[in-house]
Specification:
Strand content of chain B: 25-35%
CATH superfamily of chain A: MetI-like
Largest sheet of chain A: none
Shape of chain B: globular
Strand order of the largest sheet of chain B: 6-7-8-3-9-10
Order of helices and strands of chain B: EEEHEEEHHHEHEHEEHHEEEEEEEE
Largest interface: A-B, 20 and 28 residues
Number of strands of chain B: 18
CATH topology of the largest domain in chain B: Rossmann fold
Helix content of chain A: over 70%
CATH class of chain A: Mainly Alpha
Helix content of chain B: 25-40%
Number of domains of chain A: 1
Radius of gyration of chain B: 23 Å
Oligomer: heterodimer
Chain lengths: 271, 326
């Protein structure tokens, strides 16, 4: 032991580095722990310290028709948004990276612009546009709005993969007899897939978590989970909110894990 | 395996409307020939190869393979093999799937694919690597997979774009022998792009030396080395002395010069430096007037007969000099 200690003297820099990392992790994870504590605490108002452990708030959440309808709507919308944004986002990224388009920088900025505009403005603008054009507030309008905000995430991750893409690999496939369509499905798509799905994870979470845009575009009885939670909080501040938050976190986490398993998001790093 | 002759007929290519990358190049490559395109980077050798492959369309001129005009044929219908410097293997597929790709595109029946993939891998000594991914192989192994993938479809033409450029020297030399031997055994027409003159001399049946988009000289390695036609070719291939006599240029290889006593020699001077190269030494001799001369002395003993500072005379035969075009 003493030999090892001699060889590796106390390193102040390294200790500071580890301490900083621990602090950052605590900063990120502590709120989740607090939410979990509140979700399990049976008192009818949010209080500290907790007096016990109970699942009554989870029960309330899962047995409430309002919460459940909202949860299913949110899941359904987020899934459609995921599919739409990976298709649109990947196509945009390919066009931007490969299309030899004039004014490529301007186009990229344009496609990324939903990230720059505050979501509350996007929501308000779409609300007015929908009403003025007589579209109203159908679910597909909500899906379109979420997709608008989610697509830049897919574009960005896909562009990152395309940036390091060795196009000789596609050329090799073409020489071997693959038509442009086959090159795309046999080589291009499998190789950009990790980037596309990494963006898809963001897209799902952006939609599932979306509050400001949804606020303007949902109709009574057709509200997404974040909107329902917000309305609920205006009158009650009990553990049901915390339980709903825990469910949201777990759902988002499971989407990430499932995609990781199926597609291997890690491959994204390797490319 | 059938092989096909290739003809480039006054082919030109400009990029971005500015640089003439390939300037009216005409080449006749015989069926079954090992033909190298040699030159510095930017000389147009890779662009020429890419026009044969179909990745670039010539602005003017025609490309013929096996007697057919293929200028307007898309890449995937040209039935060629190609090997890239970066290997360009499919990273998401196994070695066997990589090699099978071209056969799958040709809708070859599955049992035949398996048989031919196994044979192709055996040919490049990679039996047993079928289920590996390219990322798990060394550079030399990856290039052999690339070779097997290109050759398994039995193309009449194999195009190689600096295929050995990424390998270290020892492996490179070994692959040179293997590639040459394989090409002769299969009889495939091979077009080989390289900037390495030693590699081109060692492997090729014929070499086209290119410079600034033009072909400077086409010939066998011996012709290119012993009888360079232009100053560029003479300079680019190996070491050479260029003697300017009046307005005419004469080239003389360092190994054609003999070291003699200074008195009565064609040229007398002092040894400036002596670079020991193993079996030979390259001496730089500064004459009383005129530019320095390079002299290669092959020695049986451990070192050259002259040291820096020695006075020395140079002698050569007129038949060993080559007059250059300019």
């Amino acid at each position: 032991m003493s030999v090892a200690r001699n060889r590796r003297p106390f390193d102040a820099g390294r200790a500071a580095y580890l301490a900083l990392n621990a602090l950052l992790l605590a900063f990120l994870l502590l709120p989740i722990v607090i939410v979990l504590v509140f979700a399990l605490n049976p008192t009818p108002y949010i209080s500290f310290p907790p007096v016990g452990v109970s699942l009554r708030w989870f029960e309330k959440f899962f047995t409430s028709a309002e919460f459940m309808n909202a949860l299913w709507l949110s899941l359904w919308v987020a899934t459609v948004v995921l599919v739409l944004s990976i298709v649109i986002g990947a196509a945009c990224a390919l066009a931007l990276a490969r299309g030899n388009l004039p004014g490529r920088a301007v186009l990229t900025a344009f496609f990324m612009s939903p990230l720059m505009v505050p979501a509350i403005l996007t929501g308000l603008a779409l609300f007015q546009a929908y009403l003025l054009s007589g579209i109203g507030r159908p679910v597909w309008g909500l899906i379109a709005a979420h997709t608008l905000v989610a697509v830049p995430y897919v574009i960005r991750t896909t562009l990152a993969v395309l940036h390091n893409f060795d196009r000789r690999i596609e050329e090799a496939a073409a020489v071997l007899g693959a038509s442009p369509t086959r090159v795309f499905f046999e080589v291009t798509l499998p190789l950009i897939r990790p980037g596309v799905f990494a963006g898809g994870v963001f897209a799902f979470i952006v939609s599932f978590d979306q509050f400001p845009v949804s606020l303007f575009l949902v109709v009574p009885k057709g509200e997404t989970l974040p909107v329902v939670l917000f309305n609920y909080m205006k009158f009650d501040l009990d553990g049901a909110i915390a339980a709903a938050s825990m469910v949201s976190i777990l759902l988002a986490l499971s989407v990430v894990l499932v995609l990781e398993r199926l597609i291997g998001l890690k491959a994204y790093v390797k490319l | 395996m059938t092989s096909a002759a290739i003809k480039l007929d006054r082919v030109s290519k400009t990029f971005d409307g500015r640089v003439l990358a390939v300037d009216s190049v005409t080449l006749d490559i015989a069926a079954g020939e090992f033909f190298s395109l040699l030159g510095p980077s930017g000389c147009g050798k890779t662009t020429s190869l890419r026009m044969i492959a179909g990745f670039e369309h010539p602005d003017s001129g025609r490309v013929h393979v096996g007697g057919n005009d293929i200028t307007d044929l898309p890449v995937h219908r040209r039935d060629m093999g190609m090997v890239f410097q970066s290997y360009a293997l499919f990273p998401h597929r196994t070695v066997a799937e990589n090699v099978a790709f071209g056969l799958r595109m040709r809708e070859v029946p599955k049992p035949e694919i398996e048989r031919r993939v196994a044979a192709a891998l055996a040919q490049v000594a990679l039996t047993g690597f079928e289920t590996r991914k390219p990322g798990q192989l060394s550079g030399g192994q990856q290039q052999r997979v690339a070779l097997a993938r290109a050759l398994v479809v039995e193309p009449p033409v194999l195009l190689c774009d600096e295929p050995l450029g990424a390998l270290d020297r020892k492996l490179r030399q070994q692959m040179q022998f293997e590639l040459k031997e394989l090409q002769k055994r299969l009889g495939v027409t091979l077009v080989f792009v390289t900037h390495d003159q030693e590699e081109a001399l060692a492997m090729s049946d014929r070499i086209a030396v290119m410079n600034r988009g033009k072909v400077e000289q086409v010939g066998t390695p011996t012709e290119i080395y012993e009888r360079p036609r232009t100053r560029f070719v003479a300079d680019f291939i190996g070491e050479i002395n260029i003697l300017e006599v009046g307005s005419s240029l004469t080239a003389l290889r360092p190994e054609k010069i003999r070291l003699v006593a200074p008195a009565g020699a064609r040229l007398a001077g002092t040894v400036e430096t002596a670079n020991y190269l193993g079996g030979s030494t390259l001496l730089r001799v500064r004459p009383a007037t005129g530019p320095s001369m390079l002299v290669r002395e092959t020695h049986a003993g451990e070192r050259a007969s002259r040291m820096p500072g020695d006075a020395v005379g140079l002698a050569w035969n007129d038949t060993d000099t080559v007059s250059l075009e300019g």
